[in-house]
Amino acid sequence: MVLSVILFALGVGLISLLLLLNNQLDEKFEKNLAGIDLVIGAKGSPLQLILCNMYHIDAPTGNIDIADATPFLRPGHPLIDQAVPLSLGDNYRSFRIVGTSHAFMDMYEAKVNEGQLFEEHFEVTIGAGVADVLNLQIGDTFFSAHGFEHEDNLEHESHKPFQVVGILAPTGSVVDQLILCTTPTIWLVHDHEAPATMEEEDNDGAHDHEDHDHEGEDHDHSDHDHDHEGAHDHELFDQPLLSYPEKQITSILIKFSARNFRTLNMQRNINENTSLQAATPAIEINRLFNLMGVGLDTLRVLAFVIVLVSGLSIFISLLSSLKDRKYELALMRVMGASRLKLFHLILTEGLLIAVFGYVVGIVLSHVSIELLSGYMQDAYRYSITGKVFLPQELWLFGGCLLVGLISALIPAFQAFRTDISETLTRAS
Amino acid sequence: MQVYLALHYWLRKILIENMLQSRGLTFSYDKHRSFSFPDIECKTGEQCLLLGESGSGKTTLLHVLGGLRKPTAGSVMVQEQDITKMTGAALDRFRGRHIGIIFQQSHFVTSLTIRENLQLAQKFANLPVDDEKILQILNRLNIGDRSEAKPQRLSVGEQQRASICRALINGPDLILADEPTSALDDSNCEEVVNLLQDQAAREGATLMIVTHDTRLKTRFSHQIELHS
Fold it and tell me: How many CB atoms lie within 10 A of CB A382?
């Protein structure tokens, strides 16, 4: 009996776990698509480009010169409705700092909940998740660290500290996990730190060095005050982005005004004729899901097999316990119980096992999702929760009752047919 | 209460002359194994002994009389109702209400306590659960202190008494006992027969013991012999 319940719980737990994961990941991926049609960045893996710049999981493919990006960033492109520059490369306690423009907020439909959007360099507006986890409030200041993983010794203290000026309302998208600032902020952080520039993998860095040499200061971290003053005075970056063609960004997120063959041509053109790379999020994510889908499908089949096997185990355990209890059942008949009563009794037993198994399985899956969510948050910047219940889980309950009922049907029928006299004679 | 019970037994006695009456009973398992039984008549409140060698079909007869098995031919009247004509749930209900059966070996629902086993008997007979009555009967048979024990924790003698309690709990009109003494030594045999006779008389129930145990011969005036 206990074995049947455990087996049943495992099957149900696995199915519900897959449902929850699938549902929440789908939802997140959907949300993070945010209507973005094209991502333009440095050459490399298109999937990496998407994962890095839209889901903020992977490392960047590299940087692109604003000079090259100018055609897409300049207003008035006939095909482009919205283009948002992104600059990556820093983190604060492993939350990514993204240099961008206010249009980013429009793209993800993010609203300011408290305070305001960043205006000046080194002002940041943070996602709801960041504020929550790091317990940051408006007016708080911090120093960023290089790269995407939090490491104390990579912290830049050589620049002006970031200051929180606003907190966004929760969106359910990746924006919740980001720290947003102006694009030049990222330049300023890195410009006076020649060796640790934005992107190590695609670091032409030459101009950074030049900038730095002009300061004539040594770039030791301990001298941060001097350093920072120098850098700040040197370049104010108070002009629009396009005025700095020699500077770099990581990527551009693009929304087309309409999707047609010309937009397709534009993507092909970029990939074939420029040093840039353009990737379509929907296609890349589909590719990823197709790759992952094999695994998910296998797990799903496995879960259903487990439920079927546990149904079989209910059947077997009921049938074998029936053999032991045949005499008890005959006894109940002697005491006045009808055939139908015994039939009900065994059916109820099967159903109870199914219900117990279901409850244990659901608790198991939701608790493990809750436990998993901490890890997911750290590793993939995804907040998932075990505190939601899906309508499919109600269907699952119905399915479980059905499995319990069917498994108990034959044993119940056997109980129904028990011949009292025969059983009593044989046993005594 | 005592007055009411006395009135009830008296009424039953004058209204129903024969508690148990069988006519022309035959039973065949197959072509080679068939029994034909003598006609039986037990007056209300009477205590009868049905004696037979093993293989004479004693147990089969008891099952037929208790409505656990349908005879091939003939009729069994309990309380002047033909139970061979009853079917399904009606027969089960009748059995639960009016007939108490004690088997040679005591069997219980092992996952329940003695008290719960007796409650079950009340529930299956569609009677209200009456814990007071259960304890009263258990006490009367000196196993009141075992009411919360699981059946398998009881000694064989205690189990036998508990199964007598179960047969009595619903105040049956007819008590059928199948070889209640054959496994017992002389003194225990004596005690169990005393118990059965006393309790049946107290409940005003008709008692029929089916046995091959000849020690019981001296205790019953009404005896029926089965021949194979």
Answer: 21
Residues on chain B bordering chain A, Cβ-to-Cβ distance under 8 angstroms: 59-60, 63, 66, 68-69, 88-89, 92-93, 95-97, 101, 103-105, 107-110, 120-121, 124-126, 166, 178
Tell me what the mean pLDDT of segment A267-278 comes to: 91
What CA–CA distances, in Å, run from A267 to A81, A191, A252, A280? Answer: 15, 32, 13, 8
pLDDT band of residue A118 (cuts 50, 70, 90) is very high
Domain boundaries, chain B: 2-226
The domain ranges of chain A are 2-19+287-427, 38-278
For A332, which of B93, B110, B124 is closest by C-beta distance? B124
Size of interface A-B (CB pairs under 8 A): 64
Distance in Å, alpha carbon of A419 to nearest chain B alpha carbon: 8
Contact A257, A35 (CB under 8 A): no
Question: Tens digits of per-residue pLDDT, A51-100?
Answer: 899 888 888 889 999 999 888 888 888 889 989 999 998 888 888 999 99
pLDDT at A193: 53
Query: How far does Cα A68 stand from its chain's mean position?
Result: 31
Q: Judging by beta carbons within 10 Å of its beta carbon (0-12, 13-18, 19+), is residue B207 exposed, middle or buried? A: buried
What average pLDDT does the structure give for chain A?
82
| pLDDT (tens digit per residue) in A7-55 | 888 888 888 888 888 888 777 777 778 788 999 999 999 999 998 998 8
Shortest Cα distance, chain A CAs vs residue B58, angstroms: 11
> How does pLDDT run across B73-91, given as a tens digit for each residue?
999 999 888 999 988 888 9
- Of the candidates A81, A79, A35, the residue with the CA atom closest to the CA atom of residue A54: A35
Contact A427 B121 (CB under 8 A): no
- Cα–Cα distances (Å) from B108 to A327, A422, B41, B115, B166, in that order, read 9, 17, 31, 11, 10
Phi first, then psi: what are they for A38, rounded to 5°?
-150, 140
> Confidence class of residue B32 from pLDDT cuts 50, 70 and 90?
confident
Please give the Cα distance from A328 to A322 (Å, whole number).
9
**Could you tell me which of A109, A7, A5, A12 has the C-alpha nearest to residue A364?**
A12
Q: Which of A331, A339, A341 sits opposite B109 (nearest CB)?
A: A331
Angle at B95 between CA B90 and CA B101, to 5 degrees: 160
Q: What is the mean pLDDT of residues A170-177?
A: 86
- If you classify domain B2-226 with CATH, what class do you get? alpha beta
Distance CA(A354)–CA(A12), nearest Å, equals 10
Distances (CA, A) of A353 to A302, A348, A413, B223: 21, 9, 18, 52
Q: Mean of the pLDDT values across residues A404-426?
A: 87
